[in-house]
């Protein structure tokens, strides 16, 4: 929270911490988008290696592998979103306990 | 490294549960001891646990191989909260990932914890300790720990599969076959994990050097912890 020369308190739209986090986020997302675009252009499936190796292991074991639960289609995106939203809240809550507020926050 | 239910025979997954318990029990003791010594440890452990959950569920595309995989986060966790405590938080993380995200399985939590939480954590931690002892800079020791912990996690996971499923094939050959499934995608991600681990340790050092073990030269006192939490 900033205080201007008239003594009015205001909250900046983008404080230094938010700016830094957005820059890091966009940098990581740019790498992901570029990699995904390249894979799409070359007809690559982009499946998970865990799934591929589990399928290999299933052939060796002559048994079907299965996750504890199966989340079809967009349900997986939904589950990830919920989990990561609350993960972010918990990290943020503990972050403030440990690192406090930076200058300009 | 998220081995699913149905792949490992009951004797194998029970054995991996037993092996993991050898680290979980001292890990719980370590957590109890450090909570008493350090006011910051509880929120720190919670934050690191959630970070491991997110990092090890975050599938990143690797265009070299056309597939996706995830980093582990456990080498970083082992450096900052301790290798035994990392075994405990990884087991909790793997339980939630199996139950809510369909990653891994319930019977395989022991095996998955052994590869990611124990082998990944301890190898990263040993790498960090060794390099710091020889005076390596923080970024180098942290980066090498992230790389080593990531690769060792997948080597351990491939070994767990090979040990149970090699049949008439020599175990080392089967181990390398399974690792060949992980390796090409995982090696670029291990480099990314190295960069990430080094960056986080460097950022922590700039804000709270007392939270980075072996850097401030001594453990964090309750007085220092309190001042950090009141800030």
CATH architecture of chain B: Orthogonal Bundle
The structural domain count of chain A equals: 2
Q: Return the structural class of chain B.
A: mainly alpha
Helix proportion range of chain B: over 70%
Judged by helices, strands and strand pairing, the structural class of chain A is: mainly alpha
Terminal CA distance of chain A reads: 5 Å
Overall average pLDDT of chain A = 83
Mean pLDDT of chain B, to the nearest integer, reads: 89
Compressed to H and E, one letter per element, the order of chain A equals EEHHH
Helix content of chain A: 55-70%
The main β sheet of chain A shows up as:
2 strands, antiparallel
CATH-assigned fold name of chain B: Arp2/3 complex 21 kDa subunit ARPC3
**Which outline of chain A best applies?**
elongated
Task: Explain what the structure shows.
The complex is a heterodimer of chains A (105) and B (231). Chain A folds into 2 domains: 1-63, no CATH class; 67-105, no CATH class. Chain A is 62% helix and 4% strand. Chain A has helices at residues 16-41, 49-61, 74-99, and strands spanning 2-3, 9-10. In chain B, 73% of the residues lie in helices and 3% in strands. In chain B, helix 2 packs antiparallel against helix 3 and helix 3 (74-81) packs across helix 4 (83-101). The longest helix of chain B is centred in the last third of the chain and has 37 residues, at 171-207. At the A-B interface, helix 1, helix 2 and helix 3 of A face helix 2, strand 1, strand 2, helix 4 and helix 6 of B.
């Amino acid at each position: 929270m900033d205080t201007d020369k008239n003594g009015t308190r205001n909250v900046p739209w983008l404080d230094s911490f938010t700016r830094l986090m957005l820059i890091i986020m966009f940098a990581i997302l740019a790498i992901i988008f570029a990699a995904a675009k390249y894979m799409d252009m070359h007809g690559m499936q982009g499946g998970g290696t865990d799934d591929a190796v589990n399928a290999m292991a299933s052939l060796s074991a002559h048994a079907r592998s299965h996750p504890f639960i199966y989340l079809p289609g967009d349900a997986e995106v939904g589950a990830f979103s919920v989990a990561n939203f609350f993960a972010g809240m918990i990290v943020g809550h503990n972050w403030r306990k440990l690192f406090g507020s930076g200058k300009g926050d | 490294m998220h081995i699913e239910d149905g792949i490992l025979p009951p004797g194998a997954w029970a054995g991996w549960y037993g092996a993991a318990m050898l680290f979980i029990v001292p890990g719980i003791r370590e957590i109890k001891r450090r909570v008493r010594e350090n006011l910051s440890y509880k929120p720190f452990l919670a934050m690191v646990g959630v970070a491991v959950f997110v990092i090890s569920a975050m599938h990143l595309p690797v265009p070299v191989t056309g597939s996706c995989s995830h980093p582990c986060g456990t080498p970083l966790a082992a450096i900052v909260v301790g290798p035994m405590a990392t075994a405990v938080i990884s087991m909790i993380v793997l339980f939630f990932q199996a139950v809510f995200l369909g990653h891994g399985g319930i019977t395989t939590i022991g095996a998955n914890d052994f590869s990611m939480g124990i082998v990944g954590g301890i190898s990263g931690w040993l790498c960090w300790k060794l390099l710091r002892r020889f005076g390596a800079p923080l970024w180098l020791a942290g980066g090498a720990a992230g790389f080593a912990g990531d690769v060792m996690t997948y080597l351990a996971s491939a070994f767990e599969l090979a040990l149970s499923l090699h049949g008439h094939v020599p175990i080392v050959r089967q181990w390398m076959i399974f690792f060949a499934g992980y390796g090409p995608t995982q090696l670029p991600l291990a480099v990314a994990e190295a960069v990430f681990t080094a960056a986080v340790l460097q950022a922590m050092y700039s804000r709270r050097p007392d939270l980075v073990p072996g850097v401030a030269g001594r453990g964090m006192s309750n007085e220092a912890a309190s001042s950090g939490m009141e800030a």
